[in-house]
Amino acid sequence: MGEVSVRTLEGRRSATTPPPIEERSDRPAVTHTLTVRLRTPRHPRLWFEILLIAMSYWTYSLIRNAVPEQKTEALRNADWIWRVEEVLGIAVERTVNHAVNSVEWLIVAMNYYYATLHFVVTIVVLVWLYRWHPGRYAATRLVLFATTGVALLGYYLYPLAPPRLMPHGGFVDTVLVHETWGSMASGNLAAMSNQYAAMPSMHIGWSVWCGITIVMLARPMWLKVVGIAYPTLTLVVIVATANHFWLDAVGGLMCLAFGFALSYAWYGTMAYRLPRQVPVQPELRPV
Known about the structure:
This protein is mostly helical. The chain has a two-stranded antiparallel ribbon with strand order 1-2. The chain is 62% helix and 3% strand.
């Protein structure tokens, strides 16, 4: 007997012929395309960047200051850090603090430096990147954001009192002594900020990020010198004002290393090696 056949709208088809295989979903291709698009540097949008930076800093401050102030543990950790530095032979923060505090105009200037340049210089570098290096902006910004994000874990997992709050440390709280407007962690503003979030130091994390960015991308030699000098001076300031130990700075550098690693993993190269300019991509319109 011949094969049984049936008639369909498309014509005769053998009953033994298997139905056509449906085409595979293109979701993996779509997902791959989306990932590639997200990892491709694009021209940043001003309104989005302003909103993102404002919301990110607000969130960072909220979480940082919401971490419980574990005074006993923070002071115990400070004593441990101090002992470790003594073993390593680098416990000279108190000497630096007293020496700089003896020069009133210098320590007052450092108080204002500590309170303001941390934010001002970082914002200036971000604006400079946005304006002159838009192709590298997102990748470099990711380094900064990842650095700050992982620092929050340090504040939560390792509460640490700054040297100026050690009861028998012999350090001078320079903001209180010289009655200058300064650190959120001193004076009348102390209640608004977590007193025991010294590890890691984001003054170092952010300033080294600024310094590396300037050195790698700036052309004038004098500006490269500024890029080197800024984090170096910041290190002296955080110690002279008794806001951080040397090892807090090491913690900040470790967070920054994580930020660079994450940016490299996402973009497949160092942020500074990406093209300086990228075309402004048109809005996608449905076909």
